[in-house]
Task: structure prediction
Amino acid sequence: MRFSALIERHQDLLTAADQRIVRELLANPTEAAFLSAASLAQRADVHPATAVRLAQKLGFGGYRELKAELQAEVINTTHPAERVRHRLAHVEQGSILADIIESDLAALRRIAEQVTEAEIDAAAKTLLAAGQVFLFAQGNATTLIEMMDRRLRRADFSTTVLRQQGRELAEHILALESGDVVLAFAFHSVPTGLTPLLQHAARIGATSILITDILGPLVKPRPQMTIAASRGLAEEYLTLTVPMAICNALILTIARLDQGRSLKALGRLAKLTRNIADVR
Result:
């Protein structure tokens, strides 16, 4: 349900302080959706707890869930063409390449503020313990699972790529078992197939890891692990630089923790590649 409809439904519960928060959110939804509870309250000139109480009155567990809902609404109501136009308008006569580099570098620097080394280590250890890794994504994010599929196979992992929908997706996850891991990627909105995949994984005892930007609180059922980092301003054209950096951190952390398994596998791959070349 859209934020404006939620406000209308719960109008009778809102205090004057709540209304001031609401006005801030409606006046500039794109910017306000990314403010912390404290920053939003400061703009509305109310107590910081007001934002939390408002979120709870609207049916959310806290401000974090409301914020994620607002961010997803901003993204879902912004057409891809509008995001491209916004980026072009921002660059004007400058260098598009320089602008992308600058914005991606800023987003990369913020990763350390949003993702901890402990989260990367925990995800890497979970992948190392997996019987098989099932990689799920749709849309542009399939680029990430193609990269992770190749790198995990080179590190001696058994992988299955899931980019299908409907019956085809169901056929591919028949092999998912307890002890396996689902590594999923989701941006902008919850992709078709992710919810039933997570439900199936939970039923059979498989572990799920989600790499995302702002969707974490909106994904149901909750994955056992979520690694979330902003890719930049929601209304702009965004790249996959940030999640790709997280993937690279996972692969290198696995290599650091696996007691030589990755390096040995790469050695076998190099030898096999030479043997195949010699046959020619």
